[in-house]
Amino acid sequence: MREDTFLIVLSISLSVTALLVVSRILSELRLLDMEIGKIVRSAALVNNTFEAAFVVFVISLAESQTVFSSTLWVIVSSRIFIVFSIFVVRPGISWLARRGTPEDEHVTNFTISIVLGGVMIFGFTSDSIGVHPSFGAFVFGLVFPNGPLAVTLLERLDDFITGFLLPLFFVTSGLKTNVSKIQGASTWFTLFMASILSPVGKAAGTVLVALSVKMPFCEGFALGLLMNSKGLTELIGLNHGKDQKVIDDTAYAMMVITTILMNAVITPLLIQIYRPARKFVPHKRRTIQKTKADAEMPILGCIHTPRNAPTIISLLEASHPTKKTPISVFSLVMITNAFKTLEQHTSFVSVQSLTSISPYSTMHEEICNLPEDKRVAFIILPFHKQLTVDGAMESANSKIQMLNQNVLVNAPCSVSILVDRGLSGSKSLIAGQASHNIAVLFFGGPDDREALLYAMRMSEHPGNSLNVIRFFPGLNAVEPTMDQSHDLNDTGILTLQIGEQDKQLDDDCIKEFRMMKATEVSFSYIEKVVNN
Length: 532
Prior knowledge:
Layout: H1 2-15, H2 19-28, H3 35-62, H4 67-100, H5 109-128, H6 133-143, H7 148-176, H8 185-212, H9 217-226, H10 232-243, H11 249-273, E1 297-302, H12 309-318, E2 327-332, H13 336-345, E3 349-354, H14 360-374, E4 378-382, E5 385-387, E6 393-395, H15 398-410, E7 414-418, H16 426-431, E8 437-442, H17 446-459, E9 465-473, H18 500-516, E10 523-530
Parallel strand pairs: 1-2, 1-4, 2-3, 4-7, 8-9, 9-10
Antiparallel strand pairs: 5-6
Helix pairs in contact: 1-3, 1-10, 2-3, 3-4, 3-10, 4-5, 5-6, 8-9, 8-11, 9-11, 10-11, 14-15, 17-18
Family: Belongs to the monovalent cation:proton antiporter 2 (CPA2) transporter (TC 2.A.37) family. CHX (TC 2.A.37.4) subfamily.
Protein name: Cation/H+ exchanger domain-containing protein
GO molecular function: antiporter activity
């Protein structure tokens, strides 16, 4: 049984993928939000889950002389343990989080102490039923509900765990590694073959599966390389096997060296063979006009600083989400708590917080990729200038201006630039009594039609009034000429040339709009003829 167990543990250790290592590599290469990043993280998560379960069960079974009774006991007791954790412990932690978290969302030290004590109890319980203590700790983290308590635990324990406990674990693993045990040409040959055949076989299998689902060979090979990442999960299994005498010193040293060699070549090789170039060529451009009137409208709100959040939130609140026409908000990059407040105090608004860590030179790629994944119809970007105390506008960051220009060029949906001139209403937001006077300057063209449709949605709010001013060129107006080359740094006047087809679409849009608002006193429509 020991030899069979050794072969199983060895196979599992060679096939495991380290999720933490994969995430770090993807983050460094800015592949987290790309398709390959999502696939490899999902695969690594499933891989880690099965690996942890298989290793602890196999080694636990190896400790017993009676295989059948040991197998039955471990399986039955583990299932009861998991069911008890889901249906009893999880609701209990939720109750504790509500009781131990005051209105200011400050988690007490007593609550945290109880939770950490629960980790020890779970580890002791899993060890008592014949499973490794790490399995109990894993189950405890798995059933732990999301919320302020989970966030506080991560914030307080992350530095201690990653800065002290993990390095200490790696040090002890290194101290257990006795390279001098690898003696003889046959042993070194075995190490060489394990270091070569294992990653090659795994990469080849991954490439074949990728090709079977029409994935390009280059992406399939990169996926195979990433799936060979080794790290913490493998070392836990190896240490557990060594402690239980399933793995001897020679095999342990060989496996640790194999892990180091694999991780040493993955990132450099991946950089050389996989250089994705995103091409933003949407087959169907999503707009507000194409969004059904009775469907949820997904909006992507981009935040650079905390100062951007109140204005965007006020705009979203003024957009009048209802049960018939709800709004789905994707908030990028930082200010997640502010948007959660919007979700709590405004009905029919769902918020999903996203994070992007990338330089300004490539940040537009992240922004333009999200609408493709989330089916977003509307992007809100903050203007690169901010309002000062004396009422003037000053440039906050020139890189934001270039970012906005890149998004305007590449976005697969409608884009708006929100200029903050003091639009706020956090108090009225919570009270539900916000009111705004909305003006639309309609010159014509697809952008103005989008603005008009969005204003129509906002005008459904009982506290909002809408004023539309449509401009027509006079008899003495100078005919504009179409300039094919536009300088992004040019601050001159931009002229518009509206084609006959656009004019007809403008007329239809205005006609429909006036018919819908004909009986409303909070609406006004004015036409003006201008010659300049």
